[in-house]
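Project outcomes to date are best conveyed with an example. Our students and postdoctoral researchers have been running inverse folding experiments weekly, and each run begins with a structure described purely in tokens. The record below, which covers 124 residues, was selected by the lab manager from last quarter's runs and is presented without edits.
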């Protein structure tokens, strides 16, 4: 049964990632990968919120599988982040490559922390 929860979450997360990426990137006339950045930050925030909810007893293990492993696992993408960063560097846009790495790490951790903090405020 657990595997089914992961599949259902991923079935929502993967198209959501693709559609969000395309919608965000189409609005920016830049080489910076805003679409991938956006889905990764959203995933960090949701996973932080979920982690805090589970720690507070407000979310169950099945919800963690559905949303955390399934949805967030398919929504976020480390491989695309890595590929896009490598392409930026290879194309001579080293500043954008470095900015992508720094912003993704710093803001990703910040988004996860914000999610945990929000969960703590909501459920404790």
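After processing, the design step wrote out the following sequence:
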């Amino acid at each position: 049964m657990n595997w089914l929860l992961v599949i259902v979450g991923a079935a929502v997360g993967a198209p959501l990632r693709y559609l969000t990426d395309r919608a965000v990137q189409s609005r920016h006339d830049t080489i910076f990968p805003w679409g991938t950045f956006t889905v990764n930050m959203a995933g960090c925030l949701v996973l932080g919120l979920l982690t805090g909810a589970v720690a507070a007893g407000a979310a169950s293990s099945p919800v963690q599988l559905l949303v955390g492993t399934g949805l967030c696992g398919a929504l976020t993408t480390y491989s695309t982040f890595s590929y896009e960063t490598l392409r930026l560097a290879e194309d001579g846009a080293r500043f954008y490559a470095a900015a992508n790495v720094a912003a993704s790490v710093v803001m990703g951790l910040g988004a996860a922390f914000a999610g945990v903090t929000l969960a703590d405020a909501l459920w404790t």
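Helices lie at 2-26, 34-55, 61-75, 78-90, 94-123. Residues 27 and 108 are 22 Å apart (CA to CA). The training component of this project remains on track.
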